[in-house]
Amino acid sequence: MLNQAVYDELIAKFEATYGKKPQVVSYAPGRIEVLGNHTDYNEGYVFSTAINYGTFFAIVPNDLGVNRVTAGDLMHTVTFPLEGAKPVTEDTWANYVIGTVAGLAKIKPQTAGFDGMFLGNVPMGFGLSSSAALEMCTAKAVCGLYGIEADNVTLAKVGQAAEHDYAGCSCGLLDQISSLCGAYGKLVKTDFRTLKVETVDMGPNVCFLMCNPHAKHALVDGQYNSRRKACEEAAAYFAKVLSHPVRALRDVSMAEWEAYSNGLDEVVAKRAAHPIGEDERVLKGAKLLAAGDLAAFGQLLFDSHESSRVMFENSCKELDDVVEITKSVPGVLGARLSGGGFGGSVVVMVNARDAETAAQAIASAYAKKTGGAPCEVSRIQPSQGACLV
Ligand code: GLA
User: Fold this and answer.
1) Ligand 1 centre and the CA of 39: distance in Å?
2) Category of 344 on φ-ψ map: left (φ > 0), alpha (ψ -120 to 50) or beta
3) Which terminus in the chain has less CB density within 10 A, N or C?
């Protein structure tokens, strides 16, 4: 089993804490966003993968009339009511669990409490969506325990609502869908209008490196939310000036942006260009993958980063430096920031046979460039999605 050691540690800690065995155990992975940045909430397209790191959630009913959840790494327990649980301001990790449980209770009200514990190994601060992994393993475990029938889209929306209402981030559905729908060796291609998900074989010759320069940036959620607002403002403008229906930026082409964006505030126009261009890159990328042209697909990652840097301004110097460095590393096919931006990591698509040497070359070139600050590199294998164990 993937991440067996984490599972074993969780079960031992669970039994020591609650004095009984779990009835249900679930698992959900983190994700990387490969191509299609800030397109999900604009009803566009994304290529992503579930990763080989994730979180397990163990659960058993209790007769206390409350829910208890323990973070298996911190060994802190938070207790919350079966109905009407509010976000907490201490131990804020619990908000992902509380919000998810509250969302599921709308589908089937809870009649008895549970004791739960989670433990994972998603590297923190890499932008690998450890929060979505936590939401989705919580969801799978709670559904398993109470016999709640819910499809992946429903579960993803429950996780998204937990982010919006309990964690304060107006995210799209990308992270949750990727965590649920991943498959070994595959990219997940999602249409965020129809919520149709396909998996696309990448073949054995490529893999990903996540390069984390440990850029610390404040107000990340505020920046994310402000980008989302700008996109919505632009979509409302295009709906007025274009003769066809526009519900979201997904409905606007780059040619239309070029013809009409001068009627928009300059900054809002720049923001809008990014998801519009990203949608076009994802669709082009799908054709390139089908044709086996990995080199041209990789170039789209570089183009995506450039659009983030210049138009969406959700990059930062540290991420830009890493991307620049990768351009002269043998075996690298493409690189870009992955996820919300303003920090986090660069995803590097690399020929599998060159992965080790490329990882070392990137880490040492970054240290040299910045005068010693390390860039942490983690090799990622596209892997299975969330499941019951
Ligand atoms: C974060 C959000 C996602 C998505 C990406 C950017 O990961 O949680 O919903 O918007 O940023 O593509």
Assistant:
1) 8
2) left
3) N
